[in-house]
Design a protein that fits this description.
By secondary structure, this protein is an all-beta fold. It is built from one helix and 43 strands. Strands 7, 8, 9, 10, 11 and 12 form a six-stranded antiparallel beta sheet that branches. Strands 18, 19, 22, 23, 24 and 25 form a six-stranded antiparallel beta sheet that branches. Strands 31, 32, 33, 34, 35 and 36 form a six-stranded antiparallel beta sheet that branches. Strand 14 (246-251) and strand 15 (257-261) form a beta hairpin. The radius of gyration is 36 Å and the shape is flat.
Length: 677
């Protein structure tokens, strides 16, 4: 029998009641009291997240105090879970723990009222500033709260002249809860300042946007920033576009076009034509708020080599839009498709900076007219001097919200089998707090220029009575997953949506059919069906478009099992009926037990088996008790004593040499009796 003796500990080596060498007792530092939150607990120990220093602090149940400052007395079957909860606010003293290689541990841990401990101090004063650097790290599928690297310029003294004297960083988690828009460079914001308690680091928080910068009329879009540092310089280029009394010059070195008026041409303006070599001076025109070409003079033919423009204008359709990256003031190329000479479609790149009217933002499907720029060897082509001739007609789509995450979600589109991504910044006439899974919405489909994938934009709530799908079957159908959820080519969990296929037999015709499904069609997104696994589902049909069918409200087929073993917080099940060749136990966690039922060994349950991606083993989930086992007295694993004279003493019951539980009646083989003569 082995005993475990708690506090108090004597100075020097103490072999204790069980022969175990205990480390010497170390005095507690009474000079300072620290605070923190209970981060994690076990039966007899836990960890505290410190508010005054980095890292965590270990503490033992013997150091736990009650509200009166007295040591807590543990009962026979009481553990740390009975006295403190995760997230509880506590104060403690710091003590060196020889048993943990001299690391500090918490002593005299005392609970505090809720709201006492503050990890950071937040100012009551609101400050105003301008976003100087946008958030980074929030990609196509990543949450905005995970973004980082933002910076705000502000004046801490609140000067009215707009002078910014200090800078402060912020993250996506620092945005106000009602903000679904990531601040852009130039946005005016209002915020509080939080000071982290452990290192006095300042950071902006509770950020709300006062005024958004006009992206359509942003200086990067209106003015020719390619020529910003060229004011007063003489540059060379080729005339690429002419219309009426004005035109555009394609600068050779800058690779951008600049506006000019015929009144600025020195000499005969009629000599100006497409591909005419010219020299000009860059100058800012305050009337139109953009840089223009002045003092344009004609150069001899052949003075500029390397580039050439087609004499005739071409027509095409925008296939992929070009976007402006505000953080770097650079453009991401888009694509225009033109009809080739033999009826073949040819794709040519373009940039938003090459649109003649910088305030025009092209969309997918817009018809445009442009000039083709070619290299000297005529192999590389590019569309420049683009003019939109007809805007695309926007088709309105209908669907149901299938998945909601912080700051974004996915919509089950009635017209396609795809689940479309949407960001909360694209909501119209509604707040993100009003969104619910299953809500019917109307939206447009656009192509994201960074991922080149279709996404939902201009999302708004559908009118009353409008529904995207209608359930076709009253009773649930049974089918088999012949293709589990997987991501399309070029997609991943961070930037894609998984799709699968279920095969079932039509109850009316008896024919075998297949229907698609996605994460949004699962009753519980954790219960992903595996290959050849039987599932239950309803058949849904789209009201709009081509009326495609899909599986909806999918759930796994439950199986019967029996509780075999119960541990601290988890247990193991065995499927029913029990067979000699199938005695594998399946792990389950107490959090998966439904309705708060406390299971006992021998109870019969229903559950679903789900593959654990960590160890690729089946675990039981959605555990529901169906039959209660007979109330058989159970032998405890150990007996605990508490009180004066005991401290914290736990006696573990002995087991026999063959692993059986103690000296129970009938254990082992009977000893033959001795017959007396």
């Amino acid at each position: 029998m082995e005993a475990r003796q708690g506090q108090p500990r004597s100075v020097g080596k103490d072999h204790g009641t069980g022969g175990k060498i205990l480390p010497p007792w170390v005095p507690v530092d009474e000079s300072k009291t620290e605070q923190g939150f209970v981060l994690n607990i076990r039966e007899t120990f836990g960890f505290i997240k410190c508010a005054d220093r980095s890292g965590t602090m270990f503490f033992h149940i013997s150091e736990l105090l009650d509200s009166e400052g007295e040591h807590v007395n543990c009962g026979l079957d009481e553990t740390l879970f009975d006295f403190v909860a995760v997230g509880a606010e506590v104060e403690f003293k710091v003590q060196e723990n020889p048993a943990r290689s001299g690391q500090n541990c918490a002593a005299r841990v005392k609970p505090l009222p809720k709201g006492t401990v503050k990890m950071e101090e937040i100012s009551t004063e609101r400050f105003k500033g301008t976003v100087e650097r946008e958030l980074r790290g929030a990609g196509f599928m990543k949450q905005l709260s995970q973004a980082y690297g933002g910076r705000i310029a502000y004046n801490p003294l609140g000067a009215q002249d707009g002078t910014a004297t200090e800078h402060i960083d912020f993250e996506g988690a620092d945005l106000s809860s009602d903000s679904s828009y990531s601040p852009a460079v130039g946005d005016e914001v209002e915020f509080n300042i939080k000071v982290r308690r452990k290192d006095s680091l300042k950071q902006a928080c509770n950020i709300s946007i006062l005024n958004r910068c006009d992206r359509k009329n942003h200086p990067s879009r209106v003015d020719n920033l390619e020529f910003q540092k060229k004011d007063g310089e003489r540059l060379k280029g080729l005339v690429s576009f002419l219309e009426g009394d004005h035109g555009f010059i394609r600068a050779t070195d800058e690779g951008a076009s600049i506006f000019f008026n015929f009144s600025e041409v020195q000499g005969d303006a009629e000599a100006i034509g497409i591909n005419t070599c010219v020299e000009f001076t860059v100058s800012f025109d305050p009337k139109v708020k953009r840089r223009c070409a002045r003092n344009v003079s004609v150069l001899p033919v052949g003075s500029i080599r390397g580039k050439a423009m087609d004499q005739e204008r071409s027509r095409g359709c925008v296939q992929k839009t070009s976007s402006l990256e505000f953080t770097t003031n650079s453009y991401i190329d888009g694509t225009i498709s033109i009809l080739g000479g033999e009826g073949q479609k040819e794709h040519i790149p373009y940039s938003a900076k090459d649109v003649n009217d910088r305030q025009v933002i092209l969309s997918v499907g817009d018809e445009v007219e442009f000039t083709v720029e070619k290299d000297e060897d005529r192999t590389l082509k590019r569309a420049i001097n683009i003019v939109r001739t007809r805007a695309a007609e926007v088709e309105l789509h209908v669907g149901n919200i299938g998945v909601l995450k912080p700051k974004f979600g996915f919509i089950k589109c009635a017209n396609t089998n795809e689940d479309l991504f949407f960001h909360f910044s694209n909501l119209q006439g509604m707040d993100s707090k009003d969104l619910t899974v299953g809500m019917t919405v109307e939206f447009n489909i656009t192509v994201d220029p960074r991922s080149n994938r279709p996404v939902a934009s201009h999302v708004k709530k559908a009118a009353e009575g409008v529904s995207a799908f209608v359930i076709q079957t009253e009773e649930m159908l049974s089918g088999t997953c012949i293709e589990p959820l997987k991501y399309s080519k070029g997609q991943s969990k961070e930037n894609g949506v998984a799709f699968g296929i279920i095969e079932y037999v039509d109850p009316k015709t008896g024919e075998s059919r297949q229907v698609p499904f996605s994460h949004g069609d699962l009753v519980d997104v954790r219960l992903n069906p595996r290959l050849d696994e039987v599932v239950l589902f309803h058949l849904a049909k789209a009201r709009y478009g081509d009326g495609k069918e899909r599986a909806a409200e999918i759930t796994l087929l439950p199986v019967a099992a029996k509780v075999q073993t119960l541990k601290d917080g988890f247990g193991f099940l065995r499927l029913l009926p029990e067979e000699e060749d199938s005695k594998k136990n399946f792990f389950f966690h107490f959090s998966e037990v439904q309705d708060g039922v406390q299971l006992n060994v021998g109870d019969e349950v229903e559950c679903v088996l789900v593959m654990n991606p960590r160890n690729e083993e089946l675990n039981a989930r959605k555990v529901i008790r169906t039959k209660v086992a007979l109330d058989v007295p159970r032998r405890p694993r150990e007996i605990k004593f508490a009180g004066k004279g005991f401290g914290n003493l736990a006696v573990r019951l002995a087991k026999g040499p063959d692993g059986t539980k103690g000296f129970s009646i009938g254990r082992g083989k009977a000893v033959p009796s001795v017959q007396e003569d």
